[in-house]
Amino acid sequence: MLTDEFGREVTGVRVSLTDRCNFDCVYCHNEGLGDTRGPMDPQNDEMSADDVVRFLEVAAEFDVDAVKFTGGEPMLRQDLEEIIERTPDQMEVSLTTNGSFLPGRAEALVDAGLERVNVSQDALDPKDFAAITKSGAYDKVLEGVEAALEAGLDPVKLNMVVFEHTAGYVPEMVDHVAENDGLQLQLIEYMPELTGKPEWNIDIQRVHDWLEERADEVEHREMHDRKRYWISTDERSSSSDDAGGGMVEIVDPVENPTFCANCHRVRVTHEGYLKGCLNRNDDLKPMGEMTKPEIREAYREVVANRVPYYGEYMVKNGDDEWEVNDKYIGEYAEI
Q1: CA separation for the pair 75, 42 (Å, rounded)
Q2: Is position 232 within any domain?
Q3: Angle between helices 204-214 and 170-179 (to 10 degrees)
């Protein structure tokens, strides 16, 4: 297993299979690349199934034990089942999707080896959902969640980005997962530095404080120094031993050195570039013609050059404001 100079082992990879998406979410940052949603037809710049599998086989050589497939919308890849089936056995396979294509495919994905799924769902009202996602697929997403549960992907984790447009729906969404077996909720802090709309930001600590008061139990996770809040209703009592709903977790990376210090992932763009940090695009590393020796070399280099974004790449100045560390300016100018 490879370790960067900050002692962070790389145990997982996130692989973007496409930048295409049938939604147009207002907060999209496309794995840190910006909202570059492409046309719906397959594109020549996307890694082939063989390319993806070849990369994963190399990652497995370095004891990576988890892969999450993302996009864009990864289910626009008609070869997704093939890719999952060919993923090395040692890797836990998960998927982040908008859920609209899960009806009719969830069972096949599980048969191929899919173990976990995250479904983006930012509101429980069709009109509000449409305003955020620019999509009329609300009912199809609900069907997709049910299809995932029926196929054995239990729990299904709902992803909700928390910003000005959605913050008012957080209590309703928390109640939703508390009342429904098989659902969990991941509240994701809005990242204004990736979307260019800082006016949409809210103080995520307010959400933490509200959940702290509401929760029956608070669990601390080492990964990214996260907290999990276990929520019950009058009709249903939850605990950390319950594999069903009632669990709410906050992902809060913004200006958070502790979060970055616990990052154990490397990312791959749909075009086949390795990426050591979500927030950076000056560290993109091509994998050449995707031969295994080229992949190994690129992977080693990207891991070696990983740095915590907050606390190292971004540091506090004398005015207690974040600024880029001069040490890293121009380091990847040739890429």
Answers
A1: 12
A2: yes
A3: 40
Determine the structural domain holding residue 19 and report its residue range.
Answer: 12-261
Q: What is the pLDDT of residue 163?
A: 87
90 closest CA partner among 116, 111, 65, 53: 65
DSSP string, 115-137: -EEEEE---SSHHHHHHHHS-S-
235-263: average pLDDT? 74
| Domain presence at residue 245 | yes
Report the alpha-carbon distance of residue 148 to residue 118 in Å, rounded. 10
Angle between helices 138-150 and 126-133 (to 10 degrees): 100
Which residue type is seen at 205? Q
Tokens matching residue 192: 């204004």
Is residue 3 a part of any domain in this protein? no
Q: Per the structure block, which two tokens stand in for 210?
A: 């509200």
Residue 30 and residue 16: Cα distance in Å, rounded? 9
pTM exceeds 0.85, yes or no:
yes
